[in-house]
# Entry
Amino acid sequence: MFEPEVQDLLQELLVKSEAGEVRWQDSKVAGMADTVRQDYLVVLPNISINIFHGSDGIRLNFIDSAGDISLGLRPETDEEVALLEKIFSSADRIVSGEKARKTLDDVKKALSQKGPVGELERRNSPF
# Structure
């Protein structure tokens, strides 16, 4: 079971995240190893918070500046699972929304320029 202080911090993180006041990022973009399909990270001055779905369920880690896990949380109750799932969902919405905005900005920029749109050759394209 999460300690009451940890529970309170997670609840506060959720409130700020749902208000759009947490700068979540895709952990791959932040330079973390590709260990799970989807995980998110928020970088604070001396620590990072990483939330992800592992093979054994949802997890949240506090990672120190040396890259070591200083506190790893694995929920034990349905309420703890629900709280971490809400945090994860909020992070996912923030990161997905940012990706969508960047995509639309790129398309708008391309369409606003004179001349043909698009390239004839694929350069470093995943397609």
Summary: The longest strand covers residues 47-54.
